[in-house]
UniProtKB/TrEMBL annotation:
Belongs to the NAD(P)-dependent epimerase/dehydratase family. Gene3D superfamilies: NAD(P)-binding Rossmann-like Domain. It comes from the Bacteria. InterPro entries: Epimerase_deHydtase, NAD(P)-bd_dom_sf. PANTHER family: DTDP-D-GLUCOSE 4,6-DEHYDRATASE-RELATED (PTHR43000). This is Nucleoside-diphosphate-sugar epimerase. SUPFAM superfamilies: NAD(P)-binding Rossmann-fold domains.
Length: 311
């Protein structure tokens, strides 16, 4: 891409949004505009409350070539989840249809829209959607609003993002904070770690977003963004504990995630995404954990304290 492309990013202050902005700003010819509720945003946009006419006026003034919607709620009341995850994308699509019908929309969905993998198979974009939680149901509603909008739009259905900046609302981010602050020999409380998940580095997600943004050909309506493998959630705990030199106990009787609690095993088939976007994950699971820990502690991994009982 050499010609100037105006890219409006919504939800830029979130975990994936921050990585996305960083990667998009490295694209030659990209002019990245920030929309959101933050005082640092170029334009104030709140998808959960804004009217379609107001959004259309804003989009008409900005004239974006692409809108990347990273805005989403992962917790809170059902009303809050519905406002951001379902109403927001629907209002955005309606406004784009009025003000910028030729702009591409890249919207972030969630693996929670699927529920569990069936019969031990990887989830493809055509797998049935049967979300177990309000979060997954509202994300699915947002996806349906996008895919039925008639716009040049693609939903990137993101699996379990991990890496530097993982928020406390996620298990990896929460566990990193607990281990960082734990006393030697103590115990940290987490939820059930028996599930298997598809962990994908947030920087790989951001690169998939870049590819979807600059692609010149029409894209499939939904693309899975994951690593293509299922790893035990306990591997997150054991990997971070090793990086932390933690010698205490990790108890699994705490409160776990409410996003897809009934899905014991879920992972992505990324065949279509690899073909459509010419994209593959680059960051390994151990590297993602190491960079998460380094960001959470401000310490390079090589200078971390030794494991309990070592010298």
């Amino acid at each position: 891409m050499t010609a100037l492309m105006r890219i409006l990013v919504l939800g830029s202050s979130g975990f994936l949004g921050e990585h996305t902005v960083q990667h998009l700003r490295a694209v030659p010819g990209a002019q990245v505009l920030i929309g959101g509720r933050s005082p640092a945003a170029d334009v104030h946009i709140d998808l959960a409350t804004a009217g379609v006419a107001q959004l259309a006026d804003t989009l008409g003034a900005l004239r974006p070539d692409t809108v990347v919607n990273c805005a989403g709620a992962v917790g809170g009341s059902s009303l809050a989840l519905a406002g951001t995850n379902a109403r927001g994308p629907a209002a955005l699509c309606a406004a784009l249809g009025e003000a910028a019908p030729t702009a591409r929309l890249v919207h972030l969905g969630s693996a929670a829209e699927y529920g569990a993998s069936g019969q031990g198979l990887a989830l493809t974009e055509s797998s049935p959607t049967c979300p177990f939680s309000v979060y997954g149901a509202t994300k699915l509603a947002g996806t349906l609003a996008v895919t039925n909008s008639g716009l040049d739009a693609v939903v990137l259905r993101v699996f379990n993002p991990i890496g530097p900046g993982s928020p406390a609302s996620s298990l990896p981010g929460r566990l990193a904070g607990l281990l960082r602050d734990a006393e030697r020999g103590s115990a940290v409380q987490v939820g059930d770690l028996s599930a298997y998940r598809d962990f994908i580095d947030a920087r790989d997600v951001a690169q998939a977003i870049v590819r979807a943004t600059i692609a010149t050909a029409p894209l499939p309506p939904v693309l899975n963004v994951g690593s293509g493998t299922a790893k035990p959630v306990r591997a997150v705990a054991s990997g971070l504990a090793q990086l932390a030199g933690f010698g205490g106990r990790i108890d699994e009787d705490g409160v776990g995630s409410t996003r897809s609690p009934a899905a014991s095993r879920a992972w992505a088939d990324i065949t279509t995404t690899v073909s459509a976007l010419d994209w593959r994950p680059r960051y390994s699971f151990p590297q993602s954990l190491a960079d998460l820990w380094a960001a959470a502690t401000g310490k390079p991994v090589g200078t971390l304290r030794p494991a309990h009982g070592s010298t």
